[in-house]
Amino acid sequence: MKKYFLLLLLLVSIVSLTIGCGNQDAKTPNDPASGDEPMKVGFIYVGPIGDAGYTYAHDLGAEFMKKELEDSVELIKVENVPENAADTERVLNQLIDQGCKIIFATSFGYMDSVIKVAEENKDVVFLHCSGYKTAENVGTYFGQIEQPRYLSGIAAGKMTKTNIIGYVAAHQIPECIRGINAFTMGARSVNPDVKVKVVWTNTWFDPPKEKDAGTSLLQDGADVIAQHQDTPGPMQAAEEGGAYGISYNSDMSKFAPKAVITGPIWNWGPYYVKTVKAVQDGTWKSEKYWGPMSDGVVDLAPIADFVPEDVKQLIETEKGRILSGELNIFTGPIKDQTGADKVPAGTTMTDDEILNMDWFVQGVEGSPK
């Protein structure tokens, strides 16, 4: 019996040793290749992915992030979410119910709903684009799109013949106002006679209305149309009217190749990769990210071939000054649209002052409120 007992102990030991050796190759729970469920990442879009503008740019970034992080993430996207509390909160909660652990809310009007839902779901990380309210599990993110806007203003100021530039703008919020100001300062830095006429549409995505706004500005004498809209409608109006255009969000030249000079563009991909990685490895902390051109989150679309070489060179020179930090576009002297001194010479506006801008610079025609 002792022999049989010893033999049984030996067999048990061999089996235990074999299992132990096999476990040495097991993946850790945080290893994407371990077979664990991928982290679900939600995106809320204000318009359709096919808008060719703002939502399209965000979705390019989301897909870039998915490609970089491969099977460690799963994307869940919801398009055309209106900026009201009922719809926003409903969609946020749907994404949470589907298992999302990080949610990117990509439009300004989602801000208060994000804060409310985040308070009720502390285990979920929320990132709100273009807002200013944060919490322990809520961060904000945006880019200093004013920098390429200033450069696009230089292009417009050089290309106009009538010295009237039309600007189709979305909503009377600081994001749009500071963009108009940066654009105007860029244009007037090379052409002090320029006037920028603003038409508000109170829309982000309404192609016919935004195109009509561009047409109305052409009828007012504009020969360059700029925009802060999510569609190429104003650029198409410019081309049909024999004018030039400054697009936004993505390179819209394919929609109006004879009109589009250039335009400020977004590159969200690297930011999305960095942020999701930080959540995955537990190092993420709430912040107010406002990335400059030197981060690559904002840039200028390729300049059209029909633009004179000296204009291209000037833009490249000024871009270099922005990238190096030599040129800060919101450094005084800056006057408001009434001609009153707003920012003294040698004084640079603070981030808070820029992010809450509610007044127009000299050269802008229209009301910011």
Overview of this structure, please?
Residues 40-320 form the ABC transporter substrate-binding protein PnrA-like domain. InterPro entries: ABC-Purine-Binding, Peripla_BP_I, PnrA-like. It is a single chain. The protein has two domains: 39-143 and 268-295, 3-Layer(aba) Sandwich (Rossmann fold); 146-263 and 301-365, Rossmann fold (3-Layer(aba) Sandwich), CATH 3.40.50.2300. The strands form four sheets. It has a six-stranded parallel β-sheet with strand order 2-1-3-4-5-12, sandwiched between helices. Strands 10-9-8-6-7-16 form a six-stranded parallel β-sheet, sandwiched between helices. With 369 residues, the chain is α/β, with parallel strands linked by helices. It contains eleven helices and 16 strands. The chain has helices at 2-23, 54-69, 85-97, 111-120, 146-159, 174-190, 207-219, 233-240, 269-280, 309-324, 351-355; strands at 39-44, 73-78, 100-105, 125-129, 138-143, 164-169, 195-200, 224-228, 244-246, 260-262, 264-266, 288-291, 298-300, 334-335, 341-343, 364-365. Residues 1-35 have low confidence and may be disordered. 40% of the residues lie in helices and 19% in strands. Helix 3 (85-97) packs across helix 4 and helix 5 runs antiparallel to helix 10.
